[in-house]
Write a structure and sequence with these properties.
It is built from 4 helices and 3 strands; from the N terminus they run βαααββα. The protein is of the alpha+beta class.
């Protein structure tokens, strides 16, 4: 059975990996995985669109 196609807004089409997301936020990958990914505001904004793929647009909004 095929996986369902995730639904994205057009503006959210550019996704980055966890390494790239950590670099954009100027934090280490381990800090990103332990603290940032599970921050309440981060998860509420639905930045992680797919497992280990993050919306570039929403990352910029969250990181200021």
């Amino acid at each position: 059975m095929a996986k369902p196609v995730p639904k994205f807004e057009i503006k959210d089409k550019i996704l980055v990996t966890a390494d790239e997301a950590a670099g954009l936020l100027s934090v280490s990958r381990s800090y990103f995985d332990e603290k940032v990914r599970y921050d309440k505001e981060f998860t509420a904004m639905n930045i992680e669109r797919m497992p280990n793929r993050y919306s570039l647009k929403r990352l910029k909004e969250w990181g200021g």
